[in-house]
Structures are given as structure tokens and as C-alpha cells.
Hints:
The structure holds 2 protein chains of 2 kinds.
Chain A (H helix, E strand, L loop, with lengths): L27 H6 L4 H8 L2 H10 L12 H5 L11 E6 L9 H7 L1 H15 L3 E6 L4 H16 L15 E6 L9 H8 L23 E5 H13 L1 H6 L8 E8 L5 E6 L2 E2 H8 L9 E5 L16 E2 L1 H6 L8 E6 L4 H15 L5 H18 L7 H12 L7 H15 L1 H10 L12
Parallel strand pairs in A: 1-2, 1-4, 2-3, 5-10
Antiparallel strand pairs in A: 5-6, 7-9, 8-10
Chain B lengths: L6 H11 L9 H12 L4 H11 L3 H8 L13 E6 L2 H5 L2 H12 L5 E2 L5 E6 L11 E3 L2 E3 L4 H13 L6
Parallel strand pairs in B: 1-3
Antiparallel strand pairs in B: 1-4, 2-3, 4-5
Helix pairs in contact in B: 1-2, 2-3, 3-4
Amino acid sequence: MTMFPTTSQTSPTRGYLLRCGNDEFIDLKRHRELGGHAALRKALAMTPDAVREQVKAANLRGRGGAGFPAGTKWGFLPKDNPKPRYLVINADEGEPGTFKDRYFLDHDPHALLEGVIITAWAIGAHQAYIYVRGEFFRPIERLESAIKELYDAGVIGKTVMGKPFDLDIVVHQGAGAYICGEESALLESIEGKPGRPRMKPPFPAVVGLFGCPTIINNVETMAGVRLILEHGADAFLAMGLPKDGGPKVFGLSGHVKRPGLYEGPMGLSLKKLIFEYGGGTIDDKPIKGVIPGGSSTAVLLPDQLDITMDFEGVKAAGSSLGTASVMVFTEGTCPVAVLLRIARFYAHESCGQCTPCRDGTGWLERIVESIEFGHGRPGDCDLLISAANQIMGNTICALGDAAAIPVISFVQQFRQDFEDHIRLGACPYGNKPEGH
Amino acid sequence: MNLAFSSDAERRLQELLGRYPNRQAAVIPALHLAVREFGYLSPEAMDLVARRLEVPQSLVLGTATFYTMLHKRPVGRYHIQVCMNVACYLKGSDNLANQLKDRLGIGFGEVTPDGMFSLEGVQCLAACGMAPVIQVNKDYHEDMTPAKVDALLDQLRSAPGGEK
């Protein structure tokens, strides 16, 4: 099976972000054959201000999950701070369901790196760190080989393509902690410390890495910056929606015939993604639920799937676009078992700094586990929602909310399954609970 | 016991230090280096990192114990990690985990008596479209099936020494 099957050729924007197949690697030579570094050349001929304006005009919303406009974020850098500025790329991909950033590291690092160089020029950063999740040993090797190509070709280093602007790009390997995908925890981690999120304000744009102004952007956001410079802000906007520009990588996993990565415009129909690109469900079973944007987003029922995949479109259905990582499960799947995997994840990944999250995620896990193992008690559904609500909004970072949202949505959407589980003292679908 | 890095690792450490404005930022890279060098982080290995980086031992210990990949106990020559999260669960990772436990005769967090294999159930490995996924040392094995797990174990057993 390929990572992104050829069926995505039906996608109107195929080829802008996903430029190669699962068994290919775009090295510097190939990147240049495909028109690479044209965007960089354009950017270097412009003033940094003009580059920032263009990215702002393209309405590129951050692709790491929160969807904050990249151009606006760059604008938060203080104008008169004498300290060095850092650019940090968040490649700590770890939200369950999400596997898009790895594509760029593994197959097309120059699309990411060209965006990094353009962004460094735009914000005046001479040092960029790419924080890659620790398990990605092989993707890191490929990314580092691409960075070496850039140094060897004189694209980065003491000058950038001959321009008197020095830039170093360094890969920093994470060590297995989901929380380091939270931007301030990521900074702590680069500084050699446990990844515990910082209180904000001050925001990283003002006090970031090593106490200096820092911009943190996602991998796919960088690929988007390259496209904006290559094609212009208007063309980029036309590839998506007016307030949410550009093409997007969509992940599809779970009970579908052709899981993988697909490219489409921002605002792609969710049904088209699942049924056309993904070929529908395995054995054409009816859908039981769809998690649209990674494990922290609210689960949708089959009658809620007539939506577009963009930040506003998914929000209107009561969930979030997140990382646009769609997980599908069909009838016969027990939602209690699915939620248990999610609850375990957040309990495991809580950094332990805030009491509501540290203790709360543990309670959520234990309550769901007791239901799964047939020890659920009447009232547990309300208890879960109450415990989740006591985490929501009461923590330094968004991990607390990320743990609470799926619990609340699963219990609300599949209440009958949870109640049946509790009443029967066993799984209504006949699942045998797994201890591990 | 006074541990020391090999000359190769020392060279690598110097290179790492050049990447950051201060020595403390090299803590995680240096701990990765120590895991590669010694197999896991013994108290002596953490002490070595603290001394070489001139940072407090407490900081190194705090960081080392925060991250799951920085092993505090020995692992097998082949460290097998089975993703247990949603996408892999939906594609049968529970069965693969049970199969591995049965064939290796160990549970999660354990090492076979010959030191060849260790097994761990892990959180999302970010390969959900290729689920179920197993990681062995540095490599991902995707779209796994019971037959592929059997073949993988046979291959690892007959291979001479694995890359750490």
C-alpha cells in the first residue's frame, strides 16, 4: 500500500504539497528540477517586510492544529529588541491520527527547508531549530542529509544564496514526550529541560528560546510559505478559502479501504475524502464515528459528516479541524474501547505540572477503564463529564482541554453504548477488554 | 565506576555543543548519545553527562526521567515498540501485542533472558495511515499482520547483531 494512493490525482490541488510517492525522495537536484528555490529567489529580492505582507495577505493559517494565522504571529515580534531572533520548526508530530509532517521529513525535506529559509529572512532570524520527534530516526537522517546539501551548495551558511545574510539550520531530536509539541514546552525541551509548558504571557514571540524573541511554526506551514512566495498570495488564496487560504494535507486512517495522506483545497468535503479518496469503509460497513482532526477533537456521528474540512467548517459541526487527521471507525467498534485508548494517551502524556490535568487525566483513564472492564457504576457517565469539565480551562496549556474534549464528546455522542456497558458489566459488542 | 565517552562520542559531543548558545541545551542530545553509547542511562551515565556539560546532576536527572526514549533500564538488542493508540487499535494492534508477548515470553517493559528482545506498548508513533505499526530500534514496520510479525521475529533472530 502506498502512503498516498494515486486516487488523490482526482484532487484539484494534488502536487503542490504532496509532490512525490511513498517510495521517492526529492533531493536538492530533483527539488530544483521541480522549480525549487524559485520562491526563495523571489523572497530574497524582496524586503523582509514585503515577504511578511505577502504571507499575511495569503491568510495562511498555522497547520499545527490551532490554525493561528502565520503572518499575524510573525507580526508579534518586538521591533526594537536587540536580542537575536530564533525560528523554531515544530516537527514533534504526535497527536494520535496525525502523520503528515513525517511525509515532508521523509520524502520532501527541501519543501520544508525552503520555507524555513524564506521565513528566517522574513523575520530576521539567523538560527533555525527544527524540533523533530525522537522516534523519527530515519526521517531525521533524511532531513539532515538535505540540510547538508544546502550547506554544500552554498544556499545556507555564511550567506544565503550569496546574499549577505547568515543562516544556520539545526535539527534537534526530541526524546518521547507528546507535550513537547506544545510550543513553550518545546522551547523548554530545546533548553535541555523537561517539557513543561510555560505560563503565557509573555508569548514566545517576545520571550522565547533562550529568552529571545522566537517564532514557532509547524512543518506544513513552512511548505505553505514556500507556495505563497512561488505562486503569489492571490493564487494561494484561490487554492483554498478566502479566510483560510491554500491547499492542505489530509490524513485518513482507521476503517477505510485506502488510508493515507491526501491533498486537497482547504474546505475539502469530508465525505469526498472518506468515500472518494479513501474508497469508503472496509467491507462497506456503516460508519459509527469519525474523529476529524486528531484525537483531541470531538467525535462526529454519521449524520454530521456533510461538512467541509476547514477551520470554520468543522467548527460549525461542533468539532475542530485540528491537524485534519481523520480517523474513521465503523459499526461494531465499541466507542468505550476507542475512548480508553484516547484517555490513556492523555494520562500518559500529561506533564504533571497542573493538578487538574495531572490528576484529572488519571481519573478519566481509570473511570473509562473500569467501564471497559465491566466495573462501571451507574452515574459514571455524568462523573466522566463532570471530571472532564473540571480540567477544561483550568490548566496552563491546552493538553487538559485536549484530554477533556474527547471524553465529553464520546460520552455525549455514544451515551447509550456507555450506559449499556455499565448496565451489562460487559461490552455490548462482545469485545474482550485488553489489559496490557 | 567512572564512565567515559569513547573518542567518537566525544567528537560528536563537541559537534553538538557548537549547535547551541549554551551547554545546557545539549542535555537531551548528550543523553541520546549516552543511551547509544551505554545502552541505557545508569546513574553513572547521567553523572557523566552532567560533568561533561557542566550542568547540575539534578537537572540531568530531571530531564532524563521526563522522556520515555531515554531508557533508565537496559533494553534488548532489539527494542520492539508496538503502537497501541486509536488508529493502530482499530487495525488490530492488540492482537499483535499479544502475539509478540506469546512468542517472546515477556510482557511490556520486560527483556528476554538472553537480552535479545525487549517489548513495550507505546503511544502514537505518527504513522496512522500505515497502521498497525511496530518500531524496532530505529526502524518502522508498517501495515503489520500476524504473518509479518512472525517473519520479522525470525529475521531478527537470525540477523547478526542489531544497530542500536
